[in-house]
Amino acid sequence: MGDLGVGKTAFTQGFADGLSITEPISSPTFTIIQEYEEGRIPFYHFDVYRISDIDEMDEIGYEDYFYGQGVCLIEWANLIEEILPEDIKVITIEKNLEKGFDYRRITVREGILL
């Protein structure tokens, strides 16, 4: 979770690096999902900013990803909140202007989106 330009994709790149994924990571803004199978576990990067109807998630088979053997990072998850699993981790990224323009505050918590 986070505003435009706060660093969600940069965070995702670091997350993928931690999974030993070496291919370039980019935001799937227009494709909705990018799949990475080469790492320690399958990694699925969603960007649902352009989802206009929740039925679009059915069309891509979201349940196979959400309830499969990999890990999903979902940018703009609040737009599909009604179909998210109950056991999610919510990562919020905010600019920390008190420390400077390039600083971010990252909060990780269990449960529902706010």
UniProtKB/TrEMBL annotation:
GO terms for cellular component: cytoplasm. Belongs to the TsaE family. Its main location: cytoplasm. Keywords: ATP-binding, Cytoplasm, Magnesium, Metal-binding, Nucleotide-binding, tRNA processing. It is found in: Cytoplasm. This is tRNA threonylcarbamoyladenosine biosynthesis protein TsaE. It holds the Pfam family TsaE. The keyword Transferase does not apply. One of its GO terms (molecular function) is metal ion binding. SUPFAM superfamilies: P-loop containing nucleoside triphosphate hydrolases (SSF52540). InterPro entries: P-loop_NTPase, T6A_TsaE. PANTHER family: TRNA THREONYLCARBAMOYLADENOSINE BIOSYNTHESIS PROTEIN TSAE (PTHR33540). GO terms for biological process: tRNA threonylcarbamoyladenosine modification.
